[in-house]
Design goal:
This protein is α/β, with parallel strands linked by helices. The protein is 50% helix and 15% strand. A hairpin with a 2-residue loop joins strand 4 and strand 5. Bound molecules: cytidine-5'-monophosphate (C5P). This is Cytidylate kinase. GO terms for molecular function: ATP binding; CMP kinase activity; dCMP kinase activity.
């Protein structure tokens, strides 16, 4: 299984992070959260006062921040220019702005290159929106996680204090539409990916299903 890459894609709230970390732990692999990298880029743009309604302004500056991702599934880390941004990148302001930043082709070129560098020789579970289609099209195991909009919103509002499931569902639907209709590398199911609907499954059941796929395909 040396060099294994497990590509884990799907919309927000489908369970990608918990499942990816669980699979990485079970197999002794590293873990990369590519969404955290797009969030870190967005956090930096907001700090700098870049006009996020202006894709050219985003493109002009996206080469500047130094984004460093730790890949331990027990405690993934994310730093921008040596600042720990694990907390700030989950705040509402970043969540509301990240899709606009992630839609800029120059941002994607830079972050995909960085992701491929980290993935290197493999032994890693990578979660995102375009891992099986763009970042690692040759990954032997590609999973596309889905869940009903209600289940996804429910999970997110359980994680975030102060939001209702309804408000979450609306914000997620907006983000999913932006992510799946953008011109560059939209969220879609990659060729060769296996769809796993997590709506009625427990976390343990989803992890077991992915481990079964890994066994079957390696
Ligand atoms: O996974 P997470 O919800 O943290 O991702 C935040 C945002 O980053 C997504 O809504 C999407 O706009 C962007 N993203 C992306 N490509 C990836 C991972 C995330 O465009 N591979």
């Amino acid at each position: 299984m040396a060099g294994l890459v497990v590509a884990m894609d799907g919309p927000s709230g489908s369970g990608k992070s918990s499942v990816s970390r669980g699979v990485a732990r079970a197999l002794g692999l590293r873990y990369l959260d590519t969404g955290a990298m797009y969030r870190a880029m967005t956090w930096w743009m907001l700090q700098q006062g870049v006009d996020l309604a202006d894709p050219a302004a985003i493109a002009a500056r996206c080469g500047e921040p130094r984004i460093v991702s730790g890949t331990d599934p027990d405690g993934p880390t994310i730093h921008v220019d040596d600042v720990d941004v694990a907390g700030p990148i989950r705040e509402t302001e970043v969540t509301g702005a990240v899709s606009a930043v992630a839609a800029v082709p120059e941002v994607r070129v830079r972050l995909v290159a960085l992701q491929r560098e980290i993935i290197g020789a493999g032994d890693i579970v990578v979660e995102g929106r375009d891992i099986g289609s763009v970042v690692c099209p040759d990954a032997p195991v590609k999973v596309y996680l889905t869940a009903s909009p209600e289940a996804r919103a429910q999970r997110r509002s359980a994680e975030l204090a102060g939001t209702t499931a309804e408000a979450q569902q609306e914000a997620m639907a907006r983000r999913d539409t932006l992510d799946s209709t953008r011109k560059t590398d939209p969220l879609s199911m990659a060729a060769g990916a296996v769809e796993v609907d997590t709506t009625a499954l427990t976390l343990e059941e989803v992890i077991a299903e992915v481990l079964r796929l890994v066994k079957e395909r390696t």
